Amino acid sequence: MRTEAPSPRLAHHFPSLETQEHAARLGMWLFLATEILLFTVLFTAYAVYRYLFPAAFDEASKLAHVALGATNTVVLITSSLTVALAVHAARQGENRKVALLLAVTIAFGAVFMVLKGVEYHHHFAEGQLPGRYYHFAGLSGPGVPMYFTVYFLMTGLHGLHVLIGMGVLAWVAIKAGRGEFGPRYSTPVELGGLYWHLVDLIWIFLFPLLYLL
Amino acid sequence: MAGSSHREGAHFGPRHYVLVWVALMVLTAVTVAVWKMQMPYALRVTVALSIAAVKATLVVLIFMHLWEHGGATRLVVATSLLFMVLLIGLTLADNATRFPYANPPYSAPAEGLPFASERPPSNVPPPPMRTVPEPGYQGH
């Protein structure tokens, strides 16, 4: 279904819609840069403790559930595809398709969170907890609880981002349902999509680091 | 209304997105397959991180449209990458070049990694890594 979207509002300090769109995109990328640096701090913690406790990290990462992690990788990558297709559909003015694709993306996000919850449940039940709360009998030694500190911090912050992303995309999907997007205006879909891709991007690194190494 | 006021240069369409998705899937399968082969540690790290870097590049360039959008956004990405390298690199270099006792007790950087040669002779052996419960282990 193609609908002619209503013209977007042009703020008075921008000479043209195109400039306004560029500014919005640049602002989003600046925000994403701060997000990347936020996660970089955690990646640094991972690097330092992996460097200091190589044997412990080697053994502890074997306790991660690779099958669930790999499934979640597939889920997130596929959800990235649906978002990319939604952005394309928004530019074509196919608002129903945008809403549908975003709904599918949100559903993938929910699947991701459920699988993550299953993993967390296993770790909690086994006593594989961060820092001094670690009491898993099957593996102990210096540095092992640090793996789980880093694991829960990284996957926890990432999970929070998935939830926020789902919220943002739901808001964009509602706007699409109202038929707001078209060739001249697709900024919310594009920026919400960028945020979702960032979530995917971070998982692309978390998966090998936490599960496979 | 044609999107004539829109972006310059080549556009990626659904076909490209699906191709990228297929590539990402294949790369994910390769990572898991390599993990199953149980290769030597250094090789495993190199392969896993290289594949992750390729996947990330695909996502950033195609899905996130950085290929199509030039200028300031690229500068932002490049800057964040630079600071990422600085943050991880300098912090690791700090830990690696410290007077060893300044690192946490029982830490033992892997042999063969740079900077790891200057370990002090340890009078107190570290507690052993245990992968099975010892008899009488009660937990906390």
Residue fraction in strands of chain B? under 5%
H-E order of chain B: HHH
The chain-level mean pLDDT of chain B equals 78
The fraction of residues assigned to DSSP E strands of chain A is under 5%
Describe this structure in words.
The complex is a heterodimer of chains A (213) and B (140). Chain A has a single domain, classed as Four Helix Bundle (Hemerythrin (Met), subunit A). Chain A has six helices and no strands. Chain A has helices at 17-52, 54-60, 66-91, 95-126, 144-177, 187-212. In chain A, helix 1 runs antiparallel to helix 5 (144-177) and helix 2 (54-60) crosses helix 5 (144-177). The longest helix of chain A is centred in the N-terminal third of the chain and has 36 residues, at 17-52. The mean pLDDT of chain A is 92. Chain B starts with 13 loop residues before the first helix and ends in a 43-residue tail after the last helix. The model of chain B is unreliable at 1-8 and 110-121 (pLDDT under 50). Among the domains of chain B are: 13-68; 70-100. Chain B has three helices and no strands. With 140 residues, chain B is mainly alpha-helical. Chains A and B meet through helix 1, helix 2, helix 3 and helix 6 of A and helix 1, helix 2 and helix 3 of B.
Question: Can you tag this structure with a few keywords?
Answer:
heterodimer; A: 213 residues; mainly alpha; Four Helix Bundle (Hemerythrin (Met), subunit A); 0% strand; elongated; B: 140 residues; 3 helices; disordered N terminus
Topology of this structure?
The complex is a heterodimer of chains A (213) and B (140).
Chain A: H1 17-52, H2 54-60, H3 66-91, H4 95-126, H5 144-177, H6 187-212
Helix pairs in contact in A: 1-2, 1-5, 1-6, 2-5, 3-4, 3-6, 4-5, 5-6
Chain B: H1 14-36, H2 41-63, H3 72-97
Helix pairs in contact in B: 1-2
